[in-house]
Amino acid sequence: MNDNTANSNNIHYVDIHVGRKLKEKRLERGITQDDLAGSVNLTFQQVQKYEKGINRISSSKLYDFAKFLDIDVSYFFQGLDDYKIHNQEQLYASDKVANDFGATVKNREIESLVQAFKCVSNAEVRKNIISLVKTLTT
Fold first, then answer.
1. The three-state (H, E, C) secondary structure of the chain, written as one string
2. Domain locations in the chain?
3. What does pTM read for this prediction?
4. What is the Cα 104 distance to its own chain's centre?
5. Least enclosed by CB within 10 Å: which of 16, 18, 68, 82?
6. Cα distances (angstroms) measured from residue 7 to each of 31, 70, 90, 92
């Protein structure tokens, strides 16, 4: 990826991606944020920040998460090359970033959408769904 790589909340796209992959695997395994946090000696609030990409996950914590979830660390980076973000500066995660996405969309709606999206096997159809959703938000 050669494009500049941050979103409008100053969160680096890699941190967002890794956080989403962490949440995806946690939900897939039926593990609560509290249980995941306890497995690596954190608070559930810290796990929330990791899952949103607000805080960057250290390599040692990423390794601990992978061990607890019984997955290879590379899982967190799968699909990373699919991101393409235009016309944005490269910035980094910060505790001070406000992320209100969860405040406007119910978690169950997000989970339902993600589960349905994961069932779409055709890559072109997934790409079209993403385009449609982006179109609806403008």
1. CCCCCECCCCCEHHHHHHHHHHHHHHHHCCCCHHHHHHHCCCCHHHHHHHHHCCCCCCHHHHHHHHHHHCCCHHHHHCCHHHCCCCCCCCCCCCCCCCCCHHHHCCHHHHHHHHHHHHCCCCHHHHHHHHHHHHHHCC
2. 1-99, 106-138
3. 0.56
4. 17
5. 82
6. 28, 30, 8, 10
Chain CA centroid to CA 115, Å: 14
pLDDT digits (tens, 9 = 90+) for 40-63: 999 999 999 999 999 999 999 999
Q: Which two three-digit tokens encode residue 3?
A: 């494009």
Residue type for position 91: L
Say how far apart CA 90 and CA 43 lie, in whole Å. Answer: 29
Buried b (16+ CB within 10 A) or exposed e, 34-61: eebbeebebeeebbbbbbbbbbbbeeeb
